[in-house]
Write a structure and sequence with these properties.
This protein has 29 helices and eleven strands. It has 737 residues and is of the alpha+beta class. The longest helix is centred in the middle third of the chain and has 32 residues.
Length: 737
């Protein structure tokens, strides 16, 4: 027994081993399947020829973006997704992976090249046939024909099925007549439309023999070689915008513009010479969604670009926060590093956890996208899954990018507002990401409808007995919630011990159960209410409208679950030391999401009051655990000074702080440092400590002096070591959920 106690003492005296991030492994893992494509793109980002110049006029910025696109063409960087027989590589995932990295060079370049090759060119590729590929793609790939993607109209953005532009077939001439019947049907916000575009893929309702067959795509010349509009084509410049001013967005309208019958991109719908319509997809609705679904890569790329932008913002803010000092709360001779303040950690580390989760979720999306578009997994079910995942991930990542950029800007103080530090311009440029390629709210509604559809499929062909059992289970779940059985069980297991609550909260199965249960409960509740909706169209629409908020929240919860699963999978495959740090990051992500929805979990009996309180305290301890690894976690993004191009992220602040510290240290050593007034006067003999029963004396305000106005002492917060020690005292037992 003596030997055992001595061994225990020896172990307790040894410093606890903290996880150490394998930055190289983590960097490779974050870059994912197409890591080499990303690295190649980052070489371009580091080249000043591709980088944004902030003080250009709008006209010069537009001209520069066009020149940069030609550089991409000359380098062969735009060929990845195009067919091998035309000089491409048929590498759809690699194409997107490289393309989204260009947001670090200039978001205007990323989006303008995306319009040319990812929308205009991709529409010809995916909606056209071999004839169109041979006739149009080579000149598109060489940028000899800059083009516009003319889908959105002033009067209809996300509701593409209701656009007003028509394409009426003339049997005698074997031509389609493209016409814009009213102002709201003008094509709007189109990249390349104001200046550079020579042709456009125009989406219009195909009408032949008096029948409207819905929206189809047509290849339409719009300008001559001199850059003037062709007869019947008109347009306007959208002018200066809130961001992305390197792109010449504009409007187009058409007055009885004729194009040959063969300019219909006819992969999913064709018109014979005599005007007869045919399609391999009989259902007009399914045909429409299939055509629109082929263009999902825009949403995929925006999701990835939003993740990259978050990485850049966090790398800048965390680097700066690790050097910038403010307030001497815990020392008379040295100010505190910003990143040691717990609030500063919360505002950045919680967003760092989300950036990691969204980066890993994007990799899963990209793999699914490549599988479908390469043909390896191209089934209707896989396409539907891809569209749902792309819609949900794009919505949350682009919103999160704006949130992260704004918080990073504020966390960097006045320095974050300077253009030289990149954040404000990225924030302005990414603002529109939440709107184009589908408004985020509309996209989440699409996801919500899919969740309801999947819920309904559970009962297709089910027996009355199966349905009865499901109803009984639902009743039991509801009853358990109402009488508080779940929360009572949690309280019994925790026995009022915060440490036990914290252990339970950090169990990955418990975390996932909470996140998944929220999705399933919300969807089931919505479905139950809609089951009794009237059949009459107007009343049914009103009933659905009443559920819209809850439906969108359910969709958001589902996307958060996808983020969690992707990050949790990365934890499982990581090397041991890195796994410990990534586990803390996963826990922080999960508990941040749970904290954001704490009201729902409490109202629905999923969390006891004690565990809900423990969520916040556990987050605080996780922040302390992650603090020593913050720089490694952003270093794994692989973004150097040449990619960030932010002065405050180059180490310049650290040099300034060292210079200031050396100045004051020198004065102290020489005895030339002036004495502060309050010390020169000595203590105020009339000031008496304020005593609270059962507590230590508290100095009055006049003695506290400047410290009252200063930030709280970082030294008072638990360190990573003390947080780990607290964990050790809790024991290894994880209570049952």
């Amino acid at each position: 027994m003596a030997e055992t106690n001595r061994s225990r003492r020896q172990r307790s005296e040894q410093p606890r081993q903290h996880g150490k991030v394998d930055v190289d492994w983590l960097g490779r893992d974050l870059r994912g399947t197409w890591g080499e494509r990303r690295l190649a793109a980052r070489e371009k980002v580091a080249d000043p020829r591709y980088q944004r110049i902030d003080d250009l006029t709008m006209a010069d910025h537009r001209a520069r973006a066009l020149e940069q696109m030609q550089l991409l063409v000359d380098d062969g960087a735009v060929l990845a997704a195009f067919p091998k027989r035309l000089g491409g590589e048929d590498d759809h995932g690699g194409n997107i992976a490289g393309f989204e990295e260009l947001v670090l060079a200039d978001p205007s370049l990323q989006i303008k090249s995306g319009v040319q090759f990812g929308l205009f060119g991709a529409a010809v590729l995916h909606l056209g046939t071999a004839h169109h590929h041979d006739a149009f793609l080579p000149s598109i790939m060489r940028l000899e024909v800059p083009g516009a993607f003319a889908m959105t109209e002033t009067g209809h953005g996300s509701d593409v099925a209701s656009i007003g532009t028509t394409a009426t077939y003339d049997e005698q001439a074997e031509e389609f007549v493209i016409h814009t019947p009213f102002r709201g049907a003008w094509k709007d916000y189109l990249g390349n439309a104001a200046l550079h575009g020579k042709h456009a893929v125009v989406f219009a309702k195909l009408i032949t023999k008096g029948i409207d067959h819905g929206v189809h795509a047509f290849y339409v010349p719009i300008r001559d070689e001199a850059g003037e509009f062709l007869p019947g084509v008109g347009g306007e410049d959208d002018g200066y915008k809130g961001g992305l001013n390197g792109i010449d967005n504009g409007r187009l309208h058409f007055t009885n513009v004729r194009v040959p019958r063969t300019n219909l991109l006819n992969r999913y719908g064709d018109v014979a010479a005599d005007g007869t319509y045919s399609s391999p997809i009989a259902s007009p609705g399914r045909r429409f969604f299939t055509m629109i679904g082929t263009l999902v890569q825009g949403r995929v790329s925006l999701d990835g670009a939003a993740a990259v932008a978050q990485q850049a913002a966090l790398a800048i803010a965390i680097r700066y926060g690790s050097e910038r000092r403010q307030f001497n709360a815990s020392s008379d001779t040295q100010e505190e590093v910003l990143l040691d303040y717990r609030r500063h950690q919360r505002r950045l580390f919680t967003r760092l956890a989300k950036a990691y989760a969204q980066t890993y979720a994007h990799e899963r999306l990209l793999v699914k996208f490549h599988g479908v578009f390469s043909g390896r997994t191209d089934t209707p079910e896989e396409r539907e899954d891809l569209e749902t995942l792309a819609a949900g991930l794009k919505a949350l990542s682009t919103w999160q990018a704006l949130d992260t950029l704004q918080e990073a800007r504020e966390a960097c103080g006045g320095a974050g507002f300077l253009g030289e530090n990149r954040i404000v311009q990225l924030r302005a440029d990414l603002d529109i990401y939440v709107t184009f390629e589908g408004d985020n709210t509309v996209l989440l509604q699409l996801v919500g409808k899919r969740l309801l559809g999947d819920f309904a499929k559970q009962f297709k062909g089910a027996s009355k007995g199966d349905i009865a059992r499901f109803a009984a289970d639902q009743f039991f779940e509801r009853a358990s919630t109402l009488v508080g059985l779940r929360t009572l069980t949690q309280d019994v297991r925790d026995l009022g011990n915060v440490k036990k609550s914290s252990i339970a909260l950090r169990d990955d199965d418990f975390q996932r159960d909470l996140l998944e249960d929220r999705v399933e409960t919300m969807v089931a509740d919505i479905a139950g209410r809609l089951r009794h909706a009237p059949k009459e169209q107007a009343k049914a629409a009103a009933a659905f409208n009443n559920e819209q908020h809850q439906l969108i929240e359910a969709a958001r919860a589902w996307v958060e679950l996808q983020h969690y699963d992707a990050l949790a999978a990365a934890v499982e495959r990581s090397p041991e030391a890195t796994k410990k740090v990534l586990t803390h990051l996963r826990d922080l992500f999960a508990l941040t999401i749970i904290e954001e929805h704490a009201a729902w979990h409490l109202e629905n009996g999923r969390l006891s009051g004690a565990r809900s309180l423990a969520v916040t305290s556990t987050i605080e301890r996780l922040l302390a655990k992650l603090r020593p690894h913050a720089l490694d976690l952003v270093a794994a993004f692989g973004l150097g000074d040449e990619h960030l191009r932010a002065h405050i992220a180059t180490g310049a602040e650290g040099k300034r702080q060292a210079e200031a510290q050396a100045h004051y240290d020198g004065m102290r050593a020489a005895g030339t440092l002036p004495t502060q007034e309050k010390r020169a006067k000595g203590s105020n003999p009339e000031a008496q400590p304020i005593t609270v029963a059962g507590a230590a004396p508290v100095p009055p305000a006049d003695i506290l002096g400047d410290s009252v106005a200063s930030a709280p002492s970082a030294a008072s917060a638990p360190s990573a070591e003390s947080a780990d020690a607290a964990d050790a005292s809790e024991g290894a037992e994880v209570p049952a959920r």
